[in-house]
Write a structure and sequence with these properties.
316 residues; alpha+beta; five-stranded antiparallel sheet; 10 helices; rod-shaped
């Protein structure tokens, strides 16, 4: 009887011990799950709070920097600084989220340090755009609102951020250029100065009075109310072409008046030369037939005498 009871007692003791171990594991897992749920909830709240804090901080930075004289009239630097503040707040918030989830940030920093070379090589284009953006802020070759030409693409600067420069051309097309390309390619700031020169080429016949033609163009430009008198308008012979003499007109205007004044001077110069009786030659084509036929012009200039002759024929 005692021999039979001993194995049973041992089995019961072993079962109780196993149940105690399982209960301890379940309790421990329950505690871990509870702690993880609490930490996850807190991490989510921290992440949401980080987004709101980043939005508030960027808005506060914009309002604060707008009161500073150096930033008030320079939306380029203002926008860049606001973006930096927003990114910094988000980075700090993400570090707090990772710490709340039990991730050791020191180990993450060590891993990132070890992988920095590979990441730098993989993102060298992106990082160069960031570095170029910072250099553009330091060198200041343009501001938001300036009209620039970058590698043959011209437009008004709309925005400068960490990676790209955004332009808007005359057709309202959005042009996005990487900052590294802006910094490396030739850049022309068309509105970087207060005044801008208009240059228009006219052509007159070889038999015309060149001095009179130059005087007519200068007087026409000087009479325009948008043309500056200092420097005074200038014209001169700048080319001897195949069938005409090229006369160039220079006139200085304010940057905001450049487009319309150029169109006005181009039209006014043509009309002024016509009123002065100075010929503006244009190409003619002739057809050379085969055989003994005469050479007949393909393009014929209609004169006032032709109109009178047609009018008499109609009256008859």
């Amino acid at each position: 009887m005692s021999l039979t009871a001993t194995p049973i007692a041992e089995a019961v003791a072993a079962g109780r011990q196993a149940i105690a171990v399982d209960a301890a594991m379940v309790a421990k897992l329950t505690d871990m799950a509870g702690d993880f749920a609490i930490n996850l909830t807190v991490a989510i709240l921290i992440f949401v709070a980080t987004l709101f804090a980043a939005k508030w901080a960027s808005g506060a930075a914009r309002r604060t920097l707008s009161r500073v004289r150096g930033f008030r009239h320079d939306p380029t630097v203002l926008s860049f600084a606001v973006q930096v503040v927003r990114v910094v707040v988000i980075i700090v918030g993400m570090i707090a989220v990772l710490q709340r989830l039990g991730v050791q940030t020191t180990s993450i920093i060590a891993v990132l340090g070890a992988a920095s070379l590979a990441v730098g090589l993989a993102l060298q284009g992106t990082l160069s755009n960031v570095a170029s953006g910072i250099m553009l802020l330091v060198l200041r070759p343009y501001r938001v609102g300036d009209v620039v030409d970058v590698g043959g693409m011209a437009g008004t600067v709309q925005r400068l951020d960490l990676f790209t420069t955004q332009l808007s051309n005359a057709s309202n097309h959005k042009i996005v250029i990487p900052n590294s390309k802006v910094l490396s390619d030739p850049l022309t700031n068309l509105t970087g100065q207060q005044t801008r020169r208009i240059e228009i080429n006219f052509t007159v016949g070889y038999g015309e009075d060149l001095g009179q033609a130059r005087e007519v163009l200068v007087d026409m430009a000087g009479a325009h109310d948008k043309v500056l008198h200092d420097p005074h308008p200038w014209s001169g012979v700048t080319g001897l072409l195949d069938s005409s003499v090229q006369i160039t007109l220079h006139a200085w205007v304010k940057v905001s008046d450049w487009w319309q004044t150029q169109a006005d001077l181009m039209q006014g110069g043509k009309e002024a030369l016509d009123d002065a009786g100075i010929e503006i030659p244009f190409p003619h084509q002739v057809a050379v037939p085969y055989g003994d036929e005469d050479v007949m012009p393909v393009v014929r200039v209609r004169t006032v005498e032709d109109d009178h002759a047609d009018l008499k024929t109609t009256n008859r």
